[in-house]
């Protein structure tokens, strides 16, 4: 089983979800991804956060070729384009 990076470990009650959008400034795909993440998370009542790869060397080294990247509970869900139905399904499990 893959270990979760300490960057994404959260002290959350069991069953709580967290979506992380890894992005960078000036990225139009990142802006598009954020619209989808905001909508789905608002609809489902799931918290989300945004992380800037230009401010975090570990994120940059890991994801710079894939941004935007969406993580669900610290695990990579998708990159480049975010499919609303797929994200909604992942958060509804």
Automatic annotation (TrEMBL):
<dbReference type="Pfam" id="PF05768">
    <property type="entry name" value="Glrx-like"/>
</dbReference>
<dbReference type="InterPro" id="IPR008554">
    <property type="entry name" value="Glutaredoxin-like"/>
</dbReference>
<dbReference type="InterPro" id="IPR052565">
    <property type="entry name" value="Glutaredoxin-like_YDR286C"/>
</dbReference>
<protein>
    <submittedName>
        <fullName>Glutaredoxin family protein</fullName>
    </submittedName>
</protein>
<dbReference type="InterPro" id="IPR036249">
    <property type="entry name" value="Thioredoxin-like_sf"/>
</dbReference>
């Amino acid at each position: 089983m893959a270990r979760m990076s300490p960057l994404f470990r959260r002290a959350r009650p069991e069953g709580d979800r967290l979506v992380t959008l890894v992005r960078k400034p000036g990225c139009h795909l990142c802006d598009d991804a954020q619209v989808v993440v905001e909508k789905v998370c608002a609809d489902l009542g799931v918290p989300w956060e945004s992380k800037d790869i230009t401010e975090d060397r570990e994120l940059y080294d890991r994801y710079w070729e894939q941004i935007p990247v969406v993580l669900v509970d610290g695990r990579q869900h998708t990159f480049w384009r975010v499919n609303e139905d797929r994200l909604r399904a992942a958060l509804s499990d």
